[in-house]
Amino acid sequence: MSSWIEVGQLNDIPKPGARVVKTTDGDIAVFRTAEDKIFALRDKCPHKGGQLSQGIVMGNKVACPLHDWKIELDSGKAVAPDEGCAANFPVKMDGETIMLSLIANTECPNS
Questions:
Q1: What is the distance between the alpha carbons of residues 81 and 14, in angstroms, rounded to a whole number?
Q2: Domain membership of residue 40 as a residue range
Q3: Are 9 and 26 in contact (CB under 8 A)?
Q4: CATH number where 14 lies
């Protein structure tokens, strides 16, 4: 069984912005940067559980909408001085189609 699923087309996600993919293990936010880079994180801030998909994407980071923590899109790590991480997931493009792996690159406590 493949761990990759199709989650839509590149243009389905605003630039910059996010889309939520619902899974049985929790929501995953798929982000598109202004430079058309695609990233995926567990849709849960490590601080208070805010929906990262509702945050503002700036460069390769997203600001949590609850308390403005900055989370690195490529690693899921909180930007210092904050600490913690959101699990990140592999993504790849198949032409204009976004493919998401449901197997996390990193697992984070409480993520």
A1: 30
A2: 4-101
A3: no
A4: 2.102.10.10
